Amino acid sequence: MKNKVIMPFRSAKHQHRKCQKIALDSAKKLCESQGQRLTPLRQRVLELVWQTHEPVKAYDILDQLKDEHSSSAPPTVYRALDFLQEQGLVHKIESLNAYIGCGGPDESHEHSQFLICQQCGAVAELDDIDITNLLNEKVSELGFTMQTGMVEIVGVCAICNH
Amino acid sequence: MKNKVIMPFRSAKHQHRKCQKIALDSAKKLCESQGQRLTPLRQRVLELVWQTHEPVKAYDILDQLKDEHSSSAPPTVYRALDFLQEQGLVHKIESLNAYIGCGGPDESHEHSQFLICQQCGAVAELDDIDITNLLNEKVSELGFTMQTGMVEIVGVCAICNH
DNA sequence: TATTGAAATGTTATAATATAACATTTTTGA
DNA sequence: TCAAAAATGTTATATTATAACATTTCAATA
User: What value does the mean pLDDT take over residues A94-100?
Assistant: First the structure.
């Protein structure tokens, strides 16, 4: 557990296929090691989440899923997203009601921090131990026991800042 | 701007009327000083938000408002909440889709941190400059320009921890 | 390998949260 | 007093998410 940029902002012309491949491969590995089933449906939802580095709406996933899998309905998507979140493969961005693939599901990180670029819409993920420690320390002073922390920072990314 | 507990966790038997009075009085003062109109409707919504230290759902406000103001509809509540949020009198807790009164609307604080007690449901508000500075510093290192930050920490408060 | 219980998916309905669009009323300032 | 702006009323609908129950698929084991 150290300071990590779990998923940075990527340039418009990065090889996104590589991001997708890494995500899918590590998802398969993780599920296997956990004895969890990454079914075709769940895998497909994960792929749809990984279309871009922008968080995706559940109903956008549903619309796409319907085209290829006509029996899809809201529970189809929400169940898959629930599963993927439980495995740490997907995170929900609460302030956007949208879902993003986790860049580092292997390394356990209970407390990610998300950076949301207002301009390009992309989201980066950090797992910064200094932030987590400071939050823990600060709330402990108040007698509060921290279980999970949600940090979502809105601003402008380095690329958009040029 | 300093380290502040804007609104602490309060014991079950604290004099909540005082919290309400302070909130209402400072809201009136703030609106007056800003040339904003705290209309009866807006004030009533603010009072309903301040019923407790637990965040309140928009439709719960609506249900109560309807009893006393039959023309109330969703926009009635959402417009009042939007106004109150713009004035810094109310905050939205994103992870709960619920609204809480701001304990210190006077002192400008762009970046609150919210502590959410799983057990009693209450929410405390901090404006901790160390946290804000660290977040700023960390994202700056990545070339990210921070505009607003959402920090919501779930756990157990000192009172529930006994 | 047949069975059976659990897990996953299908299906229908509806709950919960939020906004759009336009009409009317109220307030404010010229 | 009038006109413009602000606030509220009203109706409709969009968006996000879950409940409840039926059916199918999978995987362990008898």
Answer: 98
